[in-house]
Amino acid sequence: MEEFNILIEKGEDGYLIAEVIGLPGCHTQAKSMDELIMRIKEAILLYLEVAREEVILPQFIGIQKIEV
Q1: What is the pLDDT along the chain (68 residues), one digit of tens a residue?
Q2: How far apart are CA 20 and CA 8, in angstroms?
């Protein structure tokens, strides 16, 4: 079983949006956190199925908020 890091944001329309770090284009949205987690897991499985080759994930270091 693989572990993936996801970025979760709240859109202007109130939907939650999840993007998988390291899997370009792998994202989804939902109205609730439970639904979002279920959908992003499904999106990851479909992404890996379509990729058909080993996906090399970058090592996730973290997120840093900066002020400019």
Answers
A1: 888 999 999 999 999 999 999 898 999 999 999 999 999 999 999 999 888 777 777 778 888 888 99
A2: 9
- Residue 62 backbone dihedrals phi, psi, to 5 degrees: 155, -175
Give Cα separations from 62 to 5, 15, 58 (angstroms).
10, 24, 12
Domains of the chain: 1-68 (3.30.160.250)
- Report whether 17 contacts 10 (CB < 8 A): yes
Please name the residue ranges forming H helices in the chain. Answer: 33-51
Amino acid at 5: N
Q: What is the pTM of this model?
A: 0.80
What does the alpha-carbon distance between residue 33 and residue 30 come to, in Å, rounded to a whole number?
7
